[in-house]
Specification:
binds threonylcarbamoyladenylate; binds magnesium ion; 9-stranded mixed β-sheet; 4-stranded parallel β-sheet; 9 helices; single chain; DHBP synthase; alpha/beta; Rossmann fold
């Protein structure tokens, strides 16, 4: 872990309106002072992100959100149970909130989360203010789970990159919308659906009326450059293989998410494996079937998006 001076320097950069990439337990984030319009706009510019995509606001303490969002009993209960941790709550935004309207991107809600990674917590505490932070990748690309990924994605677009080693969970947070009449899981993520359902009862599936509820639901959102071939039961010699369990043989190159079939281990390795296999020279990445239980829902969600046809702007 970097020494304290690195945290102090990062916090000073953030307070001055700069962008700092930092590790969380899920993926690396690209942080900015959430109340500073120019800093938040700089995040969108650095990511090349369409501006309709709202950002998660990160805090060190739940109390930092009291003037920004309207808490309801379910939100309080979930925050007590799962924070700090890989759960993002979408709550109604208070009209008097001083956070940048760009964080909400035109919605009347705010997505908020308290990360568990010790470096993220130290940084949030030192900055002394909420930080807006999307995953630290260029828009439409796979989230970074190491500082090297961030460097490759964003290069000098961040004033500083804090290196906390590989992310323990390796998948983005679960995004739960508690701003409407029914709780809705907008994004399967690092906290399995079953854990939320134990608290809330069965969760309404993500319905939409044609419009994505959450831009993270855009079909192609986590795209490597190579095409992905899902549920592969065979592999050809010109393909790279993303294996799970006992690997198929005969691929040009391969990564095994978990030889022993452990979904938590597979989640932690997913994005790093995609980053490594996504190289020119292979015809495609063949992906072996992954079961749907536990973190398998989030892993399959990311793989299905990564395999979806891409709009030109994201390719
Ligand atoms: O694990 C994570 O959540 C990471 C780390 C850095 O915290 N952050 C992350 O941020 O994945 P990002 O911006 O890549 O994804 C945020 C997701 C997007 O799908 C976005 O559309 C959704 O949260 N979101 C943000 N604000 C929202 C809101 N007000 N209503 C609905 N969805 C929202
Ligand atoms: Mg992202």
């Amino acid at each position: 872990m970097p020494p304290f001076p690195a945290i102090a320097e990062a916090a000073a950069l953030l307070r001055a309106g700069g962008l700092v990439a930092f590790p969380t337990e899920t993926v690396y984030g690209l942080g900015a002072d959430a109340a500073d319009d120019r800093a938040v706009a700089a995040i969108y510019a650095a990511k090349g992100r369409p501006s309709f995509n709202p950002l998660i606001v990160h805090v060190a303490e739940a109390g930092q959100l009291d003037e920004e969002v309207v808490w309801n009993p379910a939100a309080r209960r979930l925050a007590r149970r799962f924070w700090p941790g890989p759960l993002t709550l979408v709550l109604p935004r208070r009209p008097e909130s001083r956070l940048s309207l760009l964080c909400s991107a035109g919605l009347d809600s705010l997505a908020v989360r308290m990360p568990a990674h010790p470096l993220a917590r130290a940084l949030l505490q030192a900055a002394g203010r909420p930080l807006a932070a999307p995953s630290a990748n260029r828009s439409g690309r796979v989230s970074p789970t190491t500082a090297a990924h961030v460097r490759r994605e964003l290069g000098g677009r961040a004033a500083m990159i804090l290196d906390g080693g590989p992310c323990a969970i390796g998948l983005e947070s679960s995004v739960l919308d508690l701003s409407g009449a029914q709780p809705r899981l907008l994004r399967a993520g690092g906290l399995p659906r079953q854990a939320l359902e134990r608290e809330l009862g069965p969760l309404a599936s993500r319905i939409d009326n044609g419009q994505p509820l959450s831009p993270g639901q855009l079909p192609s959102h986590y795209a490597p450059s190579l095409p992905l071939r899902l549920n592969a039961r065979t592999v050809s010699p010109d393909e790279a293989l993303l294996a799970f369990g006992t690997a198929l043989s005969g691929a040009a190159d391969s990564e095994n998410l978990s030889p022993g079939g452990d979904l938590t281990e597979a989640a932690a390795r997913l994005f790093a494996a995609l980053h490594r296999l996504d190289r020119p020279g292979f015809a495609a990445i063949a992906v072996m079937p992954i079961p749907m239980e536990g973190l398998g829902e989030a892993i399959n969600d990311r793989l299905i998006r990564a395999a979806a046809p891409r709009p030109r702007s994201q390719s």
